[in-house]
Sequence to fold (516 residues):
Amino acid sequence: MLKRVLAFGLTAGLAAAVLGGCGNSGTTKPVPGNGTLFTFVGDTPACDILTFRTTLTGLTLTGGSSTATVLNSASAAVKVNFAALRDFSTVLNFTNVPEGTYDKATVTFSAPQMNVYSPLANPPFAAITVNLSNTKPSFSISPPLTVTKGETIGLRMDFDVLHSIQFDASGQVAPDVTPVMTLTPVNASSDQGFGEMDDVLGFVQRVDTFSANPSFIGDFAMQLLSGTGPSIVVSLMAPPSPTRNCQLEGCTTVCVGPPSASGEPCAQLQKLSQLLTGSFVEVDGYVDAKANFVANSVEVEDQEDVANKKIALLGYVTSVTRDTSGNLTQFNLYVREEEPDDEFDVSLDSIVAVNVSSSTIYQFASRSTNFANLPFDSTSVQVGQELIVHGVVTKAPAPAAGQPALPATDAADKVYLKLQTHPGNFASLVQAGSDDKTGAFTFSPCASFFQDRAMMVFTSGQTAFVNVGGLNELTPQPSLLLKGLLFFESQGTTINGVTVPAGTFVLLAKQVHQTI
Fold:
């Protein structure tokens, strides 16, 4: 994970149930009412697919005599980069629909774009002209989705990039794409609603320092999808107090800087009023059964300023430059997303030369995932990592006649290591604890970025194992999707008694997902 959220009209309230109407015989007949549908979308990734963008201009549900328009181009067109949803979820829509049972969904796609990693090219990626076999395909909803008047239900849409794309005889990605999606109803649980969503990205529009709900201390509105998406309200749970136990009742952690001097994992926001509009944030949270988006943690990274060309760039490191002493001076970033959008100076799917200095701040998001307390600094930046760069961008000057185009540059104020997902295969077990969850194993990522270099993966008792019981059940097949923080240990270290050699990638796993 989006864990970014693309939502439309997400509010704290639910639609009221409607009853009424009379028949000719005098008996009262209920008039069909509305239920609330929360639709979110995810992706099963494919190796070396850097971007797969398309605009969703329609989503219609049908079943028997029931029909519901969830999304249409007249109300909103949603731009989605499925390749960025590598085992993450993104809210697509939140709306009222007529009660009924729906067993089919028709999705309208437009303007598809795809870029793949191409190590022999300069820059190392290639655009693929996409030919959709069907721009308006229909998919079964299994089991059927039942919408009940006055109640909320979720619909999960998983876009399978791996099985949607085609390959030619030489194994290269072909332009023909046949969309493959799985749609499944989701009911809310009592504690985590429709399921936790990691790494929801956006910037703050406004802040409310109060809430009518006593469980919340306030909220903020968050603009998503590079400024082209919806605005959602993020509710913050109350802080600890003599009468409140965070472990039992939940509290929102709001980090605004590096770890505090007292040893706390982050410097926390003291007052909600200190949260500045325009701040770029990463949120881990969930939508509860009453349709509140509730934050478990909020990482406040930097305040963006489009007027002065200060934005956030998200993408993959493609090359690293160090001086003779080994100090990082510059790295190239493949830009797959901008927050907010500013393509006048930096184009998506382009390379930006990121310049760092002694004042550049390095940090990692999803701080609870760093259970090994590994540092992230200039020595940790390496090819293949997914980073967020905050800084002032400068448009590249026009090249001289006969010379190649130059990249735009970014003077980095802050560099964040983001939560990311990497596909590949289990290689060997290094260590497994008695709980079968805490330990380590080696992993072979399939992305060409890593040039067949194995990673060491460490897990904890909090690591989620999906479709596999634990460490001892891992096998080379089927494949794995690993979600976590990817560090590079240039000097080597020891984690839970396991030696990590110098020059090793270390992934601290939040989730180990075995594909079926």
